[in-house]
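Support request, please re-run this one:
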Amino acid sequence: MKRNFIAFAGALLLGACARIGSPEGGPKDTAPPRVVEAKSTRNGALNFRERAIYLTFDEWVTLQEVNSQVFVSPPLAKRPEVTLKGRTVVFRFDKDEPLRPNTTYTIFFGTAVRDLHEGNVAQDLRFVFSTGDHIDSTTLVGAVVDAFSNEPVENASVLLYDNLADSAVVAERPYYLARTDKSGQLRLPNVRPGTYRCIAIEDADQNLRWRPESERIGFLDSFVVVQPADTLVAVPVLRMSAPAPAGRLLARRVNQYGAVRLGYGRLTALPQLRVEPPAIRYLPTREQDTLIVWYDNPDSLAWTLFANADTVPVRALAKAAFLKQHRLFFGDERLTPPPGGRRPAQPAAPTALPPPRTVNVRSGRPVLVPFNAPLTRVDTSRVVWLADSTEMRDFTLSPDSADPLALRLSLNWERGRRYTLTLLPGALMDFWGATNADTLTRFFSVPTEKQVGTLALVLENLTPGMAYILRILNGNTLEEERLLVAEGPKQREVFADLMPVAYTAQLIEDANRNGRWDGGDYFARRQPERVFSKKLDALRPGWDSEFSLPVPADTPRRRQ
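Re-run finished. Output below.
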């Protein structure tokens, strides 16, 4: 018995010694996996003819997101096979892959290779070889940003073409490829001397071709020229914007009675509208690049909307069902959905309206009160207007002539007073003849002079004669927008009665003077309109604060 116990204990000890696993305790492993050169295919090889590349690491590794992380420059015609065998990553060319003669290739592995236990990424892992007798040594560096926000764009595909034709970016694969990091920076090593067209695209389908109808693009005004003696070439910042074909209908939404929503690439003006049958009553409004055609179809028949050359069929939807669920409310409020959290196809009435909001009023300015549907009439006998607790009748409240989804409220505002607007049931009538069934309440506060501040903004380095759009933003809320034409290189704009918070000043070069920001157009050789933003220090109540917003110098150039 004693002998059996000793044998059993010895077996347990041997089993514990033989068990494979991570040791408990000790410092965390932060070292990335490294290539063991003696056991791997030689990096930097000349006259390369191999069909497979082997990279053996000093520890166990994993492969992650191979399709998005591993790419080759110049791009291959066929997808390679990347597998893991033990500690070795195997990169195998397709059997029909034709490698270009006298060409330097770089294989980028991104963050695909990580150690097994801690997930440490193999740093700057790339493999370089040449099918000729030398390695190209020029490195291109640059950055990609969003054209409107100027924020860096991560994982953008930066493509270089040796074919300089405009159409190459949609018809051919590029000669070189790089991808941006989290800070939007690009680094493309081993570029041969030559002249290239350079673009940056999102490349959502990873086919290395630009799709003009859907993918953002950034491009340079001139070609990138790499000289034989160059070791480092810095390219200008690529500013990406969405394609915006003027007047092109891109999306439509017709599944809700009373409103047809048409989304355009760039809506420069309201299209010519016609309906069939003509008895359909309609009212067009616009939200940026979306056209909303509000309609009334009493007979609930199928009908057709014609917008310029586009034909939009609208199926028969019951007006009675729509009116049963329809509800008038303030357009800037988020309503509580019905119990269960699911919204039906038609907008349903919420269980309760949110509590009344308080809006700060800038003295001497009319106020627009937004609603969720076009308004046609106000019954002022059902409107209660209080200044503090005193009822007043000296005010004007009517549908706004420029925006049928808003009421224009005008009166002589008095500083330091609190106003209450109460819309009793039946006070409002909308486009379909429905009235508000709820009592709608909104508070208005007019701060005293000691509670608000004045912002003076000095715009510098303006281009005389250039049109600009100047915006003052409170977070994501637009406080005020002004359209101006620079009379000289410096201009001072003053904004009074602002709440004492930190604002952002945003200046847009309105090159085509249409009162809005426009992205670039690759084929029209037009860069995105430049946007300059500056976060300002918080205003001090009762004080005048002055800030400067300089426009960086940038000489516009025509793309070749």
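The chain has five domains: 37-130, 138-240, 249-325, 358-445, 453-550. The domain at 37-130 is CATH 2.60.40.3710 (Immunoglobulin-like).
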